[in-house]
Amino acid sequence: MTAVFALATSLLWGLADFGGGLLTRRTSALTVVVVSQSIATVVLGAIVGATGAWSEAGPQLWFAVAAGLAGPVAMLAFYKALALGPMGVVSPLGSLGVAVPVAVGLVLGERPGLLQFAGIAVAVVGVALAGGPQFKGAPVQRQAVLLTLLSAFGFGAVMALIAEASTTLTGLFLALFVQRVTNVVAGGTALYVAVRRGTETPPKVAPTALPALAFVGLADVAANGTYALAAQNGPVTVAAVLASLYPVVTALAARGFLSERLRGVQAAGAGLALVGTVLLATG
């Protein structure tokens, strides 16, 4: 089940990143973050009310608050990077944040088997190569790389924190709700300050964009949920690496919908990522 939930996380995050990157090319990244997360918060609030998840409230929700503070920073940096650079390059670099939850798992005493260690190594190398790393080039590319590395650390922190925020399914609903409320408060405050300072225009969202924003917000929150379930059902080291394969999904979506061409090294990296996935799932 760990592999199933973690791979579902990759699929959901990959599609959410693709949608968020497209939206950010037409709308402010901060607006995309705030609006998409607001929609997710409303849906989660309804689920929490219907399931009575409030009974699961406890000190562990502070992990959800911390994840909610890290999330907007990571998403803002990532969406800006996606808008600047090719999705097939930016997205794989963002997955380097997997080092954070993997390190936490190792510190807590997890010791994957030899085959799983091999899978981790192969998958991480594959994800890195899938980006066809372009650390040289135009200033825009360098800025995209720096923003992506910032987002990677933030995403890794969110993965580590949300895995500790609940132990039950209803508790997970509440933790995700608290995380999203924090996201909206933090992101909304940043948007308000930016508008007051004149660095952002007042947010304007076309009604036709709402379905896409809803998809991005709900896919992102669902991915957080499936990752938490993956981490609860098996080693965090395995769950984190499998969940980090989402850049392959983003790159393939960009190839299919935007005709972004994959270089040879990117195709090879995607293949290695899949080999690593098989090793992790069977180890």
Q: Tally the beta strands.
A: 0
- Given the structure, what is the number of helices? 12
Q: What is the chain-wise order of helices and strands?
A: HHHHHHHHHHHH
Strand content: under 5%
Report the uncertain regions. 135-140
Overall description:
- By secondary structure, the chain is an all-alpha fold.
- The protein is built from 12 helices and no strands.
- Helix 1 (2-24) packs antiparallel against helix 9 and helix 3 packs antiparallel against helix 7.
- The longest helix is centred in the middle third of the chain and has 29 residues, at 169-197.
- It is globular, with a radius of gyration of 18 Å.
- The model is unreliable at 135-140 (pLDDT under 50).
Give the arrangement of secondary structure elements:
Elements: H1 2-24, H2 29-51, H3 61-84, H4 87-94, H5 99-107, H6 114-130, H7 139-162, H8 169-197, H9 210-233, H10 236-243, H11 246-258, H12 264-282
What are the defining features of this structure?
283 residues; mainly alpha; 78% helix
